[in-house]
Amino acid sequence: ALPISATAVAASVSAAASGTGKGVGLSGGGAAALNDVQGSTLAWSADSTLQSAGAVALTASNDPSKIDATVVAAALSVAYSGVDKAGAAAIGVARARNLIGDAELSPLQVRAYLQDTSVTAAGDLTLTAHANQEIDATIVAASAAISASSKGQAAALGGSGADAENRITTRVEATIDGGGASGLQANAVTLKALDESTIDAVAVGAALVAALGSGGGGAAAVGVSIAQNSISTDLDAAIRNAQVTTRAGDIKIQAVEDARIDATSVAASLAAASGAIGIALSGAGAESTNDIDAR
Hints:
This protein is mainly beta. The protein is built from no helices and 18 strands. The strands form 3 sheets. Strands 1, 5, 6, 10, 13, 16 and 17 form a 7-stranded parallel sheet that branches. Strands 2, 3, 7, 8, 11, 14 and 18 form a 7-stranded parallel sheet that branches.
């Protein structure tokens, strides 16, 4: 499958200034991306008779199925008043959903198999299924709000949220099911099912606010980052309902799961307030859920 490379960026800037009255600035930025890879890679023979003076090899490989996604949302709000109140608010939200295969509908299939097929080969009989899926996702949400008043009160609010969902669902199979009328004969027989699924995910939510007022200042900032990553593989290497004979070599059956998740979830917030009365509140939360399930 051809790789998917997607970039979504949203930016918003708001500025308000007043020399005689109130100054109010509002800004919001949001970006979202949905990337989906489906399909199947098959090398197979069914209800057939195969004869070869050399080797018989069936190889299914999707090297690689890849999603490379970057989602960025940023918001900046600035407000100033020379004599009265000033207020600024900024919100940034970024979300990405990247799917290779679908757990509810159908997994991505990589299969090399013989079904009810007789094989006579002077060389080796080899069935190889190699699945290589990659998701590389970076999701960033940032917001900044600054308000200032030379003689009055100032207030600033900022919030940001980054949400990343990355899921790989595959069926990887190298199997022989049924040997037809005369079974299978070869010098050696090797079946190998290999899964190399990888998720590299970074989710960042950051908020910065500042309120500067001679009469008083209030500031509040919240940053949230959530990452959900999962790899689910139905891995199968087997011989069923078949008579297999080797002349000199071995019969090797291998199922190898080599999946990896590398996830970073970061949330940060900073609030500052000054004035006759200054109140600043900030909060940040980061969560990362990672699951690899091979069966």
